[in-house]
Design goal:
- The structure holds two protein chains of two kinds.
- By secondary structure, chain A is an alpha+beta fold.
- Chain A contains three helices and 21 strands.
- Among the domains of chain A are: 55-190, Sandwich (Immunoglobulin-like), CATH 2.60.40.10; 198-303, Immunoglobulin-like.
- In chain A, the strands form four sheets. In chain A, strands 3, 5, 6, 8, 10, 11 and 12 form a seven-stranded mixed β-sheet that branches. In chain A, strands 16, 17, 19, 20 and 21 form a five-stranded antiparallel β-sheet that branches. A four-stranded antiparallel β-sheet of chain A has the order 2-4-9-7, with no helix packed on it.
- Chain B has a single domain (19-164), classed as Sandwich (Immunoglobulin-like), CATH 2.60.40.
- In chain B, the strands form two sheets. In chain B, strands 1, 3, 6, 7, 9 and 11 form a six-stranded antiparallel β-sheet that branches. Chain B has a five-stranded antiparallel β-sheet with strand order 5-12-4-10-8, with no helix packed on it.
- The longest helix of chain B has 14 residues, at 2-15.
- The chains are: A alpha+beta, B mainly beta.
- At the A-B interface, strand 1, strand 2, strand 4, strand 6 and strand 10 of A face strand 1, strand 2, strand 3, strand 4 and strand 9 of B.
- Strand 12 (175-190) of chain A pairs parallel with strand 12 of chain B.
């Protein structure tokens, strides 16, 4: 998005002559008009960019969508994969390994390029690299997995990623870059007892800058196995009357991770005290957990309605009216000054001696 | 001549990928015209997401944004940027098949997630294993909340579209 500026008007010092006063009034009017134009200036935003590189990863030793291995502590395996350019133009590809986290409402979130890695990603040997790929060309690569000898039983996950080396720029007044990438999970199970763990400790209200409100319900997978959770929630007021509720389902919540279940809130909560109850279960783990009554206290400043542009206080008309009033006042002052000037000059010319 | 032709085919096979591709990209970003004001403004827009999959083993697509970096006369300090959360995704539109496997109401490709601020990755579409083998498009409604009294200059964000395969 580009916001341009109207040139600033340079005011000149006031002078005492009537002609200068008239010019000054005219220039003030010009300055006011420029200010109004600035307030009403439109920003056109529209962009359509070039085609982004079509890059992908294919596993060479497996017909599965992602790497899914069972490995014992101290074991090492090599994964063969292919980095490909499926587009019709050459591309520079960047590949790297990244941490996987549980997204809001569960699911596979993948760390961005350059972010610090830890945990299971440290088991992987795959230095970040850039590769020049012609159209419809692929190159083979290997990724080595070393499970530490002290690794505890359970589910572990990381990811390998491919993306364009540079963002694709969108042209137009709206300047957006885009990065398209593919991430393939590296899922490892270390054999041994799987002990599910689940707690639902918190509730909070969150409102986005766009004015959409969510109840964020904390979900902690404290066990050593991934969970696929579903259940129900209920929001009640201090008197026990239900305000919202219903069934909920989450995508995968990874072992040893925490995230939130974000429930969109259709109603605007008045300031006050509320209670949220959440119950989730995974019958295959198996595990069930209930939050118990979670307090949700809404202060006046949080519950205040967002200020969308269509209903918010728009100062532009008020400012324009004030400026117009100022302009009229300036014209009146200039007219008065002109009259005074003429009256001051008239006696001098009428009273001068005829032959002087 | 046959030997030469066979050698050419072999060379082509070595360098060409298997075309077992799964890619996702966005295009045709639009945002409604904005007016400079002293109050926040919600400006609606859309993104056109295209997913192409020739594998059929299932996938998920997420979108997230960086902060909108400011450049202009007021200096490139983070205080002048629009936070990434000012860009939010609403509920996505129903996916449309361009070619390939038909859309299955249960297994997809289908809408997922509830939208949200793009300072975190937001899920928009997924297909379960055995589904979503083809080309599909989906319109993503966006809203940019322009803060009050924005600095005059240029704001740039990077949108990251990730197609994932995982448990």
């Amino acid at each position: 998005m580009t916001i341009t500026e109207v040139p600033t008007h340079q005011h000149e010092p006031l002078e005492a002559t009537p002609m200068r006063k008239r010019q000054t009034v005219s220039r003030i009017a010009t300055g006011l008009a420029a200010t109004v134009a600035l307030l009403a200036m439109a920003i056109s935003v529209n962009a359509a960019g070039p085609e982004a590189p079509k890059l992908g990863i294919r596993l060479l030793d497996s017909s599965t969508a992602y790497v899914n291995l069972t490995m014992r502590p101290g074991e090492t395996k090599v994964v063969r994969l292919e980095l490909g350019n499926y587009g019709t133009t050459p591309a520079t590809a960047r590949s790297y390994v990244a941490d996987v986290y549980s997204m809001i409402n569960g699911g596979m979130g993948v760390g961005l390029s350059g972010e610090v890695t830890s945990g299971t990603t440290s088991w992987l040997t795959f230095p970040a690299k850039t590769v020049e790929l012609e159209a419809r060309q692929a190159v083979p690569e290997t990724l080595t997995i070393n499970v530490p000898s002290a690794a505890a039983p359970g589910d572990y996950i990381s990811a390998v990623v491919i993306e364009g080396d540079a963002p694709t720029s969108q042209s137009g007044d709206a300047t957006f870059n885009q990065v398209d990438r593919q991430a393939v999970a590296i899922a490892i199970r270390v054999p041994g007892p799987l002990v599910p763990g689940l707690s639902l400790p918190t509730a909070a209200l969150r409102t986005t800058p766009g004015g959409v409100s969510y109840i964020d319900l904390g979900v902690v997978n404290s066990g050593n196995t991934h969970l696929h959770l579903a259940g129900s929630y209920a929001l009640t007021d201090a008197g026990g009357a239900q305000i919202a509720g219903g069934g909920v389902a989450m995508d995968t919540v990874y072992a040893g991770s925490r995230t939130v279940l974000a429930v969109p809130l259709e109603v605007r909560l008045a300031p006050g005290h509320y209670i949220v109850n959440l119950s989730l279960s995974d019958p295959t783990a198996p595990i069930t957990a209930s939050s118990g009554p979670l307090p949700l206290d809404i202060g006046a400043e949080v519950a205040a309605p967002p200020a969308p542009a269509t209903t918010g206080l728009d100062l532009a008309p008020l400012v324009a009216a004030v400026l117009a009033l100022g302009l009229a006042l300036g014209v009146a002052v200039a007219s008065g000054a002109s009259i005074v000037f003429r009256r001051n000059r008239r006696p001098a010319s009428e009273g001068s001696p005829a032959g002087s | 001549m046959i030997a030469v032709f066979a050698a050419s085919l072999l060379a082509a096979a070595v360098v060409m990928p298997s075309f077992a591709a799964t890619t996702a990209s966005i295009a045709n970003l639009t945002l409604a015209a904005a007016t400079v004001k002293h109050v926040t403004q919600a400006k609606p827009g859309t993104l056109a997401l295209t997913v192409n999959d020739t594998v059929g083993l299932g996938w998920n697509v997420t979108v997230q944004s960086s902060a909108m970096k400011y450049s202009g006369a007021f200096g490139t300090t983070p205080a002048n940027d629009f936070p990434a959360a000012t860009l939010t995704a609403a509920f996505s539109a129903t996916p449309v098949r361009t070619l390939g496997q038909a859309i299955d109401p249960t297994n997809g490709p289908k809408i997922v997630g509830t939208g949200g601020a793009l300072n975190a990755a937001v899920k928009v579409i997924n297909a379960n294993s055995g589904f979503g083998k083809g080309t599909y498009t989906q319109n993503l409604p966006l809203t940019l909340t322009v803060p009050a009294n924005p600095r005059q200059g240029t704001y740039t964000a990077t949108l990251t579209v990730t197609i994932t395969a995982g448990p």
